[in-house]
């Protein structure tokens, strides 16, 4: 049963198309899946025993407290790739314990959200331009209504006295 479980676990680990790392309690990379190599451009020598902090910028998030909270979900981080292009990712991690409650490993998964972030930024810029266009259009409509009121006034009232004229009657 244990051999079957390990085989299935290894298959799942490799089949997942998301970046996955297995870390030790010091956040040193112990294992990774093929998707990690494909997406980051790193090779075996680059990742073996490297600190996660060298390839991930946690921004203002405190990943060190993971051992107290035991799980992290959707922490936005920047993953440094070999080509120096950072990917915006959401990181989730879970600590796995042995039967003595010692840290066995930290399973870490990264989901690339950089495209979603780019699309959200484009939508934000488009919405801003649309709001500006709507404001300009609203102001033009208001100006048109004012002009129409002025024309109405000129047609029905005497320009000198302001008294209504024959057309008003």
Kindly state the mean pLDDT as a whole number? 85
Q: How would you write the strand order of the largest sheet?
A: 2-1-6-5-4-3
Could you describe the largest sheet, including whether it forms a barrel?
A: 6 strands, antiparallel
Tell me the overall shape.
Answer: rod-shaped
Strand content: 25-35%
The portion of residues assigned to helices is 40-55%
Count of DSSP E strands? 6
Terminal Cα separation, in Å? 101 Å
- Uncertain stretches: none
The total count of helices amounts to 6
Q: Can you write the helix and strand succession as a string? A: HEEHHHEHEEEH
Which structural class matches the secondary elements? alpha+beta
What does the radius of gyration come to?
32 Å
How would you describe this structure to a colleague?
The structure is a single chain. The protein is α+β, with helices and mostly antiparallel strands. It has helices spanning 2-15, 34-40, 44-47, 52-55, 66-69, 114-156, and strands spanning 19-23, 29-32, 56-57, 71-80, 86-97, 103-112. The chain has a six-stranded antiparallel beta sheet.
